[in-house]
Amino acid sequence: MFNPAAIVKDGLVYLLYRAEDHTGEGVWNGTSRIGLAWSRDGLTFERHPEPVLSPTEPYELPGGCEDPRISFVDGTYYLTYTAFDGITARLCLATSTDLFHWDKHGLLFPQFDDGETYQWTKSGAIVPAKVNGRYVMYFGDTDIWIAFSDDGIRWESEPEPVLRRSADPAAFDSHLIEPGPAPVLTEEGIVLLYNGARLITAEGGDSGKPYYSMGQAMFALDDPRRLLRRTTHSVFDPSTSDEVRGQIDFVVFGEGLVHHRGVWLLYYGMADSRVGVAAFSERGAEPFEALEGLR
Questions:
Q1: Number of domains in the chain
Q2: Strands 46-47, 64-73: parallel, antiparallel or unpaired by DSSP?
Q3: Domain that residue 38 falls in
Q4: What is the CATH number of the domain that holds 40?
Q5: Are the C-beta atoms of 186 and 219 separated by less than 8 Å?
Q6: Which of 110, 212, 279, 293 lies in the 20 to 30 Å Cα band around 155?
Q7: pLDDT digits (tens, 9 = 90+) for 133-153
């Protein structure tokens, strides 16, 4: 289990996490489904016994439903997820009013299919409020593009990326970039945490292994296409043994960010094998200690 989305509802933190079985062979490791868990303190979770989203469509099999991101806008939960058929990853959308029951709305960008090949469109993060009367999404897994919607279901993408990989081969985000959790609206702009990768030489001399860390970018409130600034160095890197060794080595991959009881909690995938959490408190106290009394 790894790569979870997160949201707060009725005082509880809910995780929608990617759960993978052991049926995989070849280029895919196993079929993924989306599970649901909840917690009062954001640290100790109770799991729903069955998946809340499972593969049902041809483009979702055998790989399954992967890497969710969630936003809540005007009474509806919007869940983007990756459908993987074992060859191509396609971005899909589901909606819910209770987090347990989901309606699928299919492929988000079918126009990218030319009949023979399909451009990868995985990783979509929806801004959790309308901007200038429209829904806004950042998406992509090489560079990051933007898309707009009038109803949250049908989306139109802009032709050019709004955030590109770094041109410096040594930069943390030189190989690829993908949106992380739902963006955060601030007085200064729209803050997007994103996942970046660079290529490293692994132990034993193997070259070209991706090393995943995280960065941040800020876009203008009056025009979500306009990049204001971005981090030049990563803000979160693999360091623990669970982040350095796993199904894919050297990975922290953030997809869930919530503000809970005065603490920011970032939920992330650890080496494509486990779920971790990192915390930050504006009040200067130790953030995990601030949550201890909730258990």
A1: 1
A2: unpaired
A3: 2-294
A4: 2.115.10.20
A5: no
A6: 212
A7: 999 999 999 999 999 999 999
